[in-house]
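Predict the assembly for these two chains.
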Amino acid sequence: MTAPALPRTWTGRLRARAERALPPEQLLPDHQPVYVTSWIYVFGVLTLAAFLVVLVSGGVLALKGPQWWHRSSAGHYFNSLHLWSVELFMAFMVIHLWGKFFMAAWRGRRAMTWITGAVCFLGSIGTAFTGYLVQSNFDSQWISTQAKDGLNSAGVGAFFNVLDFGQMLMWHIVLLPLVVGFVIGIHILQVRRRGVVPPMQLDPRDVIAPEVTP
Amino acid sequence: MTASATKWTGRTREYDLVKEFVIALLAVSVLTVALAALFSSPDEKQITISTWSRGAPNDFVLTAATELDGTSGTATYGAPYNHTPDAAQKIGPVSLQHIAGVTHPIDTVADFVVGPLTGVPADAALAAALQQWHAAGDTQRQTWASGYDDALSKAPDNDPAQVKQGDYGPAPVMLNRLLTMAQSGGLDGALLAQKQFFATDYTKPLLFIADGSYLEDRARAQHLGGDQWGMMNETGNYPGQAWLWLYTFWYQVQPFSTSDNADALVWGLMALLSLALVLVPFIPGVRSIPRWIPVHRLIWRDYYRGIRATSDAR
C-alpha cells in the first residue's frame, strides 16, 4: 500500500496540514473524557460568550460614533451593555485562568495553550484600558492624565499617547480587538488540538513540567 | 512521554460543545441586559478649560502663571514633552523615558499662553502687552513671569485682584486676557486646533488642565487619587478596572509610594510579573504550586473517587 501523494499546490498542502493537525472530529468533538465534569470547565466558554457580547455591544457603539452614548438614552444603554459585558468577560477569564493554573493545564505539550491564554488576559487588560480612555468624559480625562506618567516613564508614551483620543480610539476598536480575537482563536485551536488536560496523577512524582517537543 | 501528553484513551462521555456555547451565550446576554438595565453606567461630565476657569478662576490664573514662568508640571516634565534635564524617571542607571526622546514637543509659554493670545483681535491693551513681551529679553521675561507667579502664590486665595504691587511687566494683562479667553471657551478650541481644523489629539488641553488643582480636587472627591487606589476605581459606585489591583497596589507601599522613580519602578516590576505569568509552565517552583495546593483534587474529585473505588475493588 502506497502513501497518499503530497498535494502539489500550496493550497492543497495547507489543507492537508490543517486536516492532519485538526481533523473535524477533533475540532468539534461530541465526546469528552469522563474527567471533564467540574463546573470550572464552564468558565472558558462563558469567557468566549462574554467576548462576543463585548464585540456586539462595542460594534453598535462604533456604528453610531463615540459621542452617541452621551446624548441618547439608547446609546447610554448600549454603553452600559458594553461596560457590564466587559466586567463579566474579565471576571470569567480570571476564574478560568485560576482554574487552569490549579489544574497545571500546561502539562503534556500544552505550554502554548497556557501562553496564548495568558497573552489574551494581558491583551484584554490593554483593550479595556483604552476603552476607559475613550469614554470622553471626566473618568477618561483623569485616567489618561494619570496613566501617562507610567507609560512615559517606560518610554511607551513616546509612541502610545494616552492623551490622543483619536489614537486611543483606533487602538481600542481596531488594533487591540484584532490581536485579542486572533490570539483567542489560536488558544481555542490549541485546546482542540491537544485536548483537555487529564487529571494530575495522585503519585506526587508525576511530571508537572510541560513537554515542549512538538 | 507523560500520560498527560498522550491522547486520552480512557472512557469518554457525550459532551455537546455547541449546545454548551449557545446556552452560555444566552445566559451571558441575559445577565448583561439585566445588569445594564439595573445599574446603567457612569458618565461624569468632562471638565473643559472653560468650566475650570469659570469654576476656579484663581487656580486657572495661578496655573497659567506657572506655564508662563516654566515651573508647571508640564514645563518641567521632560520626555516626551520637553528636554528638562534630569526630569526623566530611571530604573537603576537606565532611563527608558529619556531614551525614547521628545516626541510631543510642548513649549508651555508659546503653546499655552502667548500663542493663543496672539490670535485675540481688537484688544489694544493686550496688543501692547504682547509687544512688550516680545521686545524683552529672556531674562526680563523670566523676571516678570516668576515675580507674578510668586506674588499670586502669596496673595490671599491666590486672587489676582489682591496681588502685592510690583513690576510684573505685561504678565498680569496677558494672564487676565487668557482668563477671559478661557472663560469664553476660546482657549479650549485654540489649544486643540493649533495645527489643523480636524483634531483628535487632546494632549495640550489635558496637560494644561492637569497642571492645575481643579481636576485633581474633583478626582480625589470621587476617591480616584493615586494613593486612593485611583487607577482601578470608577466614578460613583461602579466597578472599575478591578483587574489593575496589583498594578495599583505597588503605588500604595514602600519603596514605590515615596520614590521619585515610582512609575518606572512599578512598570518595570509589572513587566517582569507579566512575563512570569506567560512563562509559568517553565518556572520551577511556581509550576509546582498546583501540586502543593491541591485544588485539583476538588476539580477532579469524581475521577479520583473512581480510581480509589477501582483500586479498593481489587
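Chain B touches chain A through 106 residues (CB under 8 Å). The two ends of chain B are 27 Å apart (CA to CA).
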